[in-house]
Here is the input.
Amino acid sequence: MTDTTSVPNGWVCLYPQDSSLTEYNRVTEDNRTTSQTVTMSLDNRGLAYADGFFTTMGVIDGLILWSDYHYQRLVSHADTLQLNINSEELLAVLQLYAQQLEQGMLKLVVTRAAQDVRGYGYAPSTNGSDCEIWLKATAMRVSTALQLSLTDGNLVPIQPNASAICLSSQIACLPPPLAGLKSLNRLDNVLASGELQQIKSEPLASKLASTLGEGLLRDMSGQWVEGTMSNVFYQLAEESLSKSKTTSSIRKDDENYLTTGQWYTPSMARSGVTGVMRQVIIDALSTTQYPVIIRSLQDEDLPKLTHLFFCNALRGIMPMSSLTLLSGDVVDFESV
Here is the structure.
């Protein structure tokens, strides 16, 4: 058993543990957590079939950011994949690790336990399949120098302006049970991220690479859906209700950025990942004059874009000042 008085390096297995333990982790009198170090078997179904899911959580001041939303992901994904998870107990254990970490990132991976059934199949049960739960805590700086106040009073990090580019890589269209799921099968995102990194490393693209922050991805139906590691929100010239502000004018005290004009975000019904920060923003704007509208993003929309930002649970909002299209043309949001 590994004593995690300090945050453990590398991965730890929260579950299963020794049969004498009745909880995911045992909490000692001085509020430390202990967990077993277990070697992952090559029979692990996450490794063999991507049979599982993951979630990545930012930690600031010992607290998990947007913990309620991560809890909902645990519940919904366990239900969809028929996994037996005590989500409340697991979240409590994650919070103990967050207290030790103080600031950084928690990455949780859940896989279905090895089955006696040969091949892809698994034996269903009333409570769902047994699973393996793995956690990696990484101490890192979570940037909070610039934050945006949401309408519900919560603060969300906002990153410096960057530029985006349309990538030729495409992501898969999935059946309804899997669309939007943060499953372990992320090969389409892996290849897209590789394309983005290659563009950044090209000598002739040095000027672009210095500001390139994210790539915009299509799915196999041709609709633009998300970034390589994030969801996307946008405004259109013909629909925008105010052109007085651009992404280049964001300031620390600019609390009207999200509530000025009509924001759209693509549907996750057929592809993409229903991100935590995406839902935070949708919920925050749901009671404002201009709630977020779920709307597909087509090729013909791209030249009409006036504002564009990506978002995820770790980095918050990532505003873009320009978008390079597949044709090489550049849509400059600063000049709109």
Q: What stands out?
A: The CA atoms of residues 2 and 36 lie 5 Å apart. Residues 1-5, 18-29, 240-253 have pLDDT under 50 and may be disordered. The two ends are 59 Å apart (CA to CA). The chain has six helices and 19 strands.
